Amino acid sequence: MRDAHIERLVEIVGERRCLWRPHQVKAYACDGYTAEEGLPRAVVFPETTDEVSRICRYLYENDIPFLPRGAGTGLSGGATPTGGEVVISLARMNKLLAVDFDNLRAVVQPGLVNLTLTRRVSHADCYYAPDPSSQSVCTIGGNFAENAGGSHCLKYGVTTNHVVAAKVVLPDGDVIDIGAPFGDAPGYDLLGLLVGSEGTLGIATEITVRILKKPQALRTALAYFDRVADASDTVTDIIGAGIIPAAIEMMDQLAMQAVDKSNYHVGYPADIEAVLLIEVDGLAAGVDEVMSRVVDICRRHRVREVRVAQSDAERALWWSSRKMAFGAMGRISPDYIVQDGVIPRTRLTEVLQKIDEVSQRYGLKIANVFHAGDGNLHPLILYDSRVPGEAERAVRAGSEVLRACVDAGGSITGEHGVGIEKIGEMTYMFSEDEIDAQLAVKSCFDPKGIVNAGKLIPLPGRCVEVKRARKIIEENWQILDSFPDQAAVQARGVFSQEAGREASTSAQG
Amino acid sequence: MVNEPTAVEAKASDFRFPDAPEEEKYSVCVHCGFCLEVCPTYQAWGDENHSPRGRVYLIKACAEGELPLDESVIDPVFTCLDCRACETVCPSGVQVGALVEEARGQVFFARDAEGKRDPIMRFFLRGVFPRPARLRAIRRLMRFYQRSGLRRLVHATGMLNVLPAQMREMEDVIPDIGRGPAIDVLPETMAPRGETKAAALLFTGCVMDVFFSDVNEATARVLVRNGVEVRVPKDQVCCGALQVHAGDRDMAREMAKRNIEVFERSGADYVAINAAGCGAALKEYPELFRDDPAWRDRAVQFSSRVRDISQLLVEVGFDPPKAELPMTVTYHDACHLCHAQKIRYEPRSLLKSVPGLTLREMPDSDRCCGSAGIYNLTHPAMANELLERKMDDVPAGVEAIVMGNPGCMMQIRLGVKRRNQPLRVMHTVEVLDLAYQREGSR
After folding, report:
1. Tens of pLDDT along B281-316?
2. Looking at beta carbons, which residues of chain B come within 8 Å of A138?
3. Secondary structure (3-state) at B193
4. What are phi and psi of B411, to 5 degrees?
5. How far is it, in rounded angstroms, from Cα B275 to Cα B405?
6. How confident is the model at residue A474 (pLDDT cuts 50, 70, 90)?
7. Where is the 4Fe-4S ferredoxin-type domain (chain B) (predicted)?
8. CA distance B82 to B412
9. CA separation (Å) from B421 to A390, B393, B400?
10. Bridge partners of A368?
11. CA–CA distance, B391 with B414 (Å, rounded to integer)
């Protein structure tokens, strides 16, 4: 039944905090990215840094692959066990360890939920700024791993701008402190390296973050546009006018339809192409004036209607409507893949047209929800995994969308991470030498290459082999015909599947 | 394993009985995880298996033949409190409660087929709750037990120690059983005061009428006071919620049919219900008749007329009490009111209408108290943890905790008793009734 490795894990965390029976671990087959799944070898729930360290040390010594997991809301498959890994769930390490209100610092365990931190410090008029849409469930550890962003990153920056120090368990179980709660830590910026490393270099078990004083006042406006181009020009002009809004969000008609069918119904007009949600914050004395300038700019760009929220409840509804948009896709489609491309803001209209072309070509609907202020697109490619081949098509469509972003001078990810989902596109964005440089860093931390392997940085070796294999198969397809029937069919199935995957995720064919 | 083809060849579902969890319900879940943090069991354990998303995922896996219907699915499906907090936040509108109940139905049928019945559970589900005469007998026994001195004797001799701790404690907080169940005490028809705004069938329920028949009587008085004619058909039966929660859907269907017929014969405009759990169950009767179009139509018609008492009073228009009731209270949102029926505003507006009454909100008032039907008996550890959290949240300086569900009332009475606090546990309608009674004595 259970092997010696499981026995050892149970010794470390106890019977109740170790799941290993195949049926118990099924629920850990994927995270918020559902297009690919795999069963973990076991799931463990440590509660202390020491336990994490002992788990890592044992697994590393015994060459057993592992990966960390927070709330499992990630959208790029960063927590998906693709190689029978042991999943180290940090969900039970969810304490707020210390708060220093005078110096505006908080020390948290990785499993603490993002919004819970804000709630726990709000009595002192403080909050934690990075606000991914999933902030009510995602963990700060997960945010750390993915360098998560959010609607208000336009003004306040992403996770890396708010993490100042961390205690990290390295793959071999050693525990180090990196960064500095105050001032700059001399030496190499290991903290900068770890934030956004997607659990491939180590596991943060204590994270020191900045907390901020809440802005004195804020104003939120909702603006309906007949044409996307007008909405897009509005965004450019607002920022061009020297205004730094706290957030500018955009949704297209399809996204509006989905969210309007949910509990977070706003009642968007059915014939507008885009809605902008614009927030400004700062000193009470200035916000009204800034907001009236924003409204003027909207009017100059043929806005159909622009309203400023009249109550906290109204503002909260508008924000929920935006933040629940991904989850609301279930109202119009059984599955979706969300992309995370970034483009120069000024090329929005043109890239949206390209996305529309991709949508037509693949026969898949694509809804658009994005952080318009910083050019971070979230095209949601809708598909039905029950229809044979549709998931694969959706992955390919997503890949094309990302390439369009790179071609426009942008990037394949703004805040969701690379994970397994965009690993193929990494080679489109970076040269082989650039990838090698990244791999060199990885091997310093994880020479065995077993910590969340196959995520973030593609192994060029594998790419080369797969490409070579595919070439041989393509050139010698007829050989398969001479095989006994069943074997040939099987082999063809395997190869075409592998080749299909290669075509869908690798860049230079 | 890395890249399993998504379109798997059809495997046989392990839900082998009729009325199984439906594809159109579970396929709506996009696995975003926004439900995790509101789920009491996930909050406590941090285990994906015991989260709404996890449960739906496992139900789906079982339906698609990826998992057998064994502990891997059964445990998570039965640790669910059925509190529906996940449904309130779910952007995609996944009906987690219905899916869990349907999955429990499969477990119930499977156990039946394997001859693995739980005789005690079955006795209560089939032998007691659906049978008004037996409910009355139990009620009489309990009243006799409380009033004859037998209870004192039992307590003095320590006989109760044979019961599990949870039941022993529960015994201790059973309210004083009144003269008779409302279904017997109340006349068949009660004429309203002033002009008749509507006629309502008063649904007296099972637990409510055994333990809290006073609340039923208060409900009738408050309705009459507000121009609603009250009809109390004597042949109504328990709503069937306990059966649905336990998976005994066949029995629940029989009970639903009876209640639908009783309502149709009564000619009333509304079904008035003061128990959140029953209200939700009555409103969800159509779910039981998915495979029976004729009954489904009748169930839809019936359900469209069901109103929680607070909802009905706000809908037909109620008179704010004229007498002062100087009291500071807090309000607990019963899961089956706020999550299952989306009723939050109405009970509060009733309370706020009472002159002199101060409503002090408690944090996370819509987090489950752990009662959850019979969950506090089947899963005492989790139920106790939730009760402790609930009691921690009660604001200082309140005299009463007000709510709209008998299960919560029993559970919170237990919490009050444990903490030895001078707190009353009241139904919303009792507060209103108290205020109306003071009008007379001015």
Report:
1. 999 999 999 999 999 999 999 999 999 999 999 999
2. 33
3. coil
4. -60, -45
5. 5
6. low
7. 19-50, 70-102
8. 18
9. 60, 14, 10
10. A379
11. 10
Scan residues 50-109 of B and list those with Cβ closer than 8 Å to A. Answer: 51, 54, 57-58, 61, 66-68, 70-73, 76, 88-94
Cβ-proximal residues to A213 (8 Å cutoff; 6+ apart), any chain: A104, A125, A126
Q: Where are the alpha helices (DSSP H) in B320-440?
A: 335-338, 345-352, 375-378, 380-392, 406-419, 428-440
> For residue B232, what are its two tokens?
């109390």
What is the 8-class DSSP label of residue A1? -
The angle, 0 to 180 degrees and rounded to 10, between the axes of the packed helices B213-225 and B428-440 is 60
Structural domains in chain B, CATH included, are: 23-113 (1.10.1060.10), 319-440 (3.40.50)
For residues B337 and B273, is the Cβ–Cβ distance under 8 A? no
CB-based contact B314:B346 (threshold 8 Å): yes
Rounded to whole angstroms, the Cα distance separating B116 from A195 reads 53
Question: Could A83 and B2 be called an inter-chain contact, meaning their C-beta atoms sit closer than 8 Å?
Answer: yes
Q: What is residue A479's predicted lDDT score, i.e. its pLDDT?
A: 54
Confidence bin at A64 (pLDDT 50/70/90): very high
In 3-state terms, chain A is what percent helix, strand and coil (to 5)?
A: 45, 20, 35
B44 touching A (Cβ < 8 Å)? no
| CA separation, residue A57 to residues A13, A93, A268, A475, B211 (Å) | 14, 19, 54, 46, 57
The answer to whether residue B3 neighbours chain A at the CB level (below 8 Å) is: yes
Give yes or no for a contact between A221 and A294, defined as CB atoms under 8 angstroms apart: yes
